[in-house]
Amino acid sequence: MLIAPSILNANNLNLKQEIKKAAGAGITRFHIDIMDGHFVPNLSFGPQLVSDFKREFPLIDAEIHLMSNNPKTLIPEFIKAGADVIEIHYEAMDEENLNYWLDYISSNGVKVGLVLNPTTPVQVIEKFSDQIDQLLLMTVKPGFGGQSFISSSAEKIKEAKDILKKADNKIPIEVDGGIDENTARICKNAGASIFVAGSYIFKKESISEQINKLNEVIK
To answer: Where is a divalent metal cation bound in this sequence (predicted)?
Structure first.
């Protein structure tokens, strides 16, 4: 079980200090949302932030959630910046391009994840499960932090778990959106093992206390 805090919800003017606090509570991976203003209606970080992150925290994984339909420009740049994991959306490109970029990321020594939006059928993972290191199921509509967990997500996690089990594939299932103590428990029971939490961790008084609470639920 793994918590990957989303820095989208951290105080960007105090980002280094907030990452340090989370790392001090045992966090070994951070989730970095990359939004281009086209695939989703929001803008966030770029390759320079990832490069700075890896320079300051070389032993902590940078997980890049790429919400963009411009992989040709962005994926090589995030690989150069030192990304440890790059996750790309099924909905961002046709399946031929998706195949290409999944293989491209992997061939460059970076772990690769496939992301599915809430409305995308989980059955699509049957075509790609042998190319990926993890599966990210969005439990909110991507684009903004602080949204409420979609209750039907639990059933989708179970479906994905069953598909992977039938394929004898043990890749982890990650969840992102509206994760707190209650929804993390629901997702864990359904089969998730990586939990992205943003507002729950960074919008409270104590970052370490929130991480400890979440760890108690998922351990």
So the answer is: 31, 33, 65, 176
